[in-house]
From TrEMBL:
One example of a Gene Ontology biological process annotation: small molecule metabolic process
Alphabetized Gene3D superfamilies for the sequence: 1.10.150.520, HAD superfamily/HAD-like (3.40.50.1000)
Gene Ontology MF terms in the entry: metal ion binding; phosphatase activity
Keyword Transcription regulation appears in the UniProt entry: no
Keyword ATP-binding listed: no
InterPro entries: HAD-like_hydrolase (IPR051400), HAD-like_sf (IPR036412), HAD-SF_hydro_IA (IPR006439), HAD-SF_hydro_IA_CTE7 (IPR011950), HAD_2 (IPR041492), HAD_sf (IPR023214)
Pfam families (UniProt xref): HAD_2
Keywords for this protein: Hydrolase, Magnesium, Metal-binding
Entry function: Catalyzes the dephosphorylation of D,L-glyceraldehyde 3-phosphate in vitro.
Descriptive protein name: Glyceraldehyde 3-phosphate phosphatase
Cofactor(s) annotated in UniProt: Mg(2+)
Family statement drawn from the similarity comment of this UniProt entry: Belongs to the HAD-like hydrolase superfamily.
Source taxon at top rank: Archaea
Amino acid sequence: MIKGIFFDLDDTLYDSSNFVDIARREAIKSMIDAGLKTTEEEAYKILQKIIKDKGSNYGKHFDDLVKAVMGYYDPKIICMGIITYHNVKFALLRPYPDTIKTLIELKKMGLKLGVITDGITIKQWEKLIRLGIHPFFDVVVTSEEYGLGKPHLEFFEFGLKKMGLKAEEVIYVGDRVDKDIKPAKELGMTTIRILKGKYKDMEGESDYTVTKLPEIVDIVKNLIEKNE
């Protein structure tokens, strides 16, 4: 019997890939206007390498960008980048058009809802609150909170424990095969992959595949009816 659903956050409940890329490019433009001695494309390549090497949760991407270009840290240029990035990011931060409708329908069914996400706890909560979807979730689990992230099975087990349900009672919804679907499936959760974001063409199998979130509602209804 299905009693709960865990969601991935980025590119599952909102468009993470596109809005972050736009915010980074706008930040670079403002940094160049403030005196960064390079072109937009060259700065973008350097920034992408820093993000790849240091990780998306590293807190000094723009510091390292300025140091790489200028040879020293310029606080004015760094600050311009940070402020522009956050202003643009939060201006564009919106859930997918059908996210809230889907969450409402699932809550009406009496299901527990949760989020399992990689990232810094405060940042992930900030996204949920700014997206306006935090009230729907009974459990939010982050990799920073647990100390390990996806695809570690212990991380998913930690989420199940917090939700108070067994793996076979839970559906997991995510966009990535390697970090979402595979570990959830290995633990015995029913898996639904949503084909959105930059990983939508990644190969791999899930129990169900959807292109839009509302399709999940019918899948859940059928699973519940099948087990009654």
